[in-house]
């Protein structure tokens, strides 16, 4: 029931953990990049720890998502038609003193937070699952689940990673055996 998380998605787990770590390190302003859900999680995390947040989003983010981010107190900056441009801009902003970059997927704290899904499975299920099926965007959920499976001794549980055609950079990366970025997300 990840839809019951403060942001409405699993992203609260990892992004919330990273936000707390950044604040503990002296961060006074969070900066994030998003195509939607992670921006909502970033602003929820910033509210929870009491520091401001700016969320950089790609052009074409759903208006309802933008409203959720703004209504919860974050400043929104729409930058670029591709996520790569949006993330580069946010990373540059996060270099300013007192700022911290709240990665939606590419940080060990995000993976550790997302791995807590597996801890809950271990507690709640009578036995290990036969298979785990999950979605892949940036890969933070997949890495977190893999780390969680390893931690609880379930490395043999198969994981099926699904992604939307048009945003299928994970599939292309696996085929190319290197990281592949898409110029635009078409779906």
From TrEMBL:
- One of its Pfam families is PALP
Q: Which residues form the Tryptophan synthase beta chain-like PALP domain?
A: 1-183
Annotated catalysed reactions: L-serine = pyruvate + NH4(+)
Could you state a single Gene Ontology molecular function term?
Answer: pyridoxal phosphate binding
Which InterPro entries does the protein's record reference? Answer: Ser/Thr_Dehydratase, Ser/Thr_deHydtase_PyrdxlP-BS, TrpB-like_PALP, TrpB-like_PALP_sf
UniProt KW keywords: Lyase, Pyridoxal phosphate
EC number from the UniProt entry: 4.3.1.17
| SUPFAM superfamilies in the cross-refs | Tryptophan synthase beta subunit-like PLP-dependent enzymes
Cofactor(s) named in the record: pyridoxal 5'-phosphate
Record-level GO BP terms: isoleucine biosynthetic process; L-serine catabolic process; L-threonine catabolic process
The record's similarity note reads: Belongs to the serine/threonine dehydratase family.
Q: What is this protein called?
A: L-serine ammonia-lyase
Instruction: Tell me which species this is from.
Output: Coptotermes formosanus
């Amino acid at each position: 029931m990840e839809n019951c998380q403060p942001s409405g998605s699993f992203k609260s787990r990892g992004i919330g953990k990273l936000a707390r770590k950044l604040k503990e390190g002296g961060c006074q302003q969070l900066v994030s990049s998003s195509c939607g859900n992670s921006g909502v999680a970033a602003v929820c995390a910033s509210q929870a720890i009491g520091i401001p947040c700016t969320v950089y989003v790609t052009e074409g983010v759903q208006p309802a998502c933008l409203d959720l981010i703004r209504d919860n107190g974050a400043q929104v900056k729409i930058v670029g038609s591709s996520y790569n441009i949006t993330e580069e801009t946010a990373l540059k902003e996060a270099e300013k003193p007192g700022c911290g970059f709240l990665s939606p997927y590419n940080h060990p704290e995000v993976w550790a937070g997302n791995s807590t899904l597996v801890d809950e499975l271990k507690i709640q299920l009578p036995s290990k699952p036969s298979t785990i099926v999950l979605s892949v965007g940036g890969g933070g959920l997949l890495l977190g689940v893999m780390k969680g499976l390893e931690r609880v001794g379930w490395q043999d549980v198969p994981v099926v990673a699904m992604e939307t055609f048009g945003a299928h950079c994970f599939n292309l990366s696996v085929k190319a055996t290197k990281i592949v970025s898409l110029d635009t997300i078409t779906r």
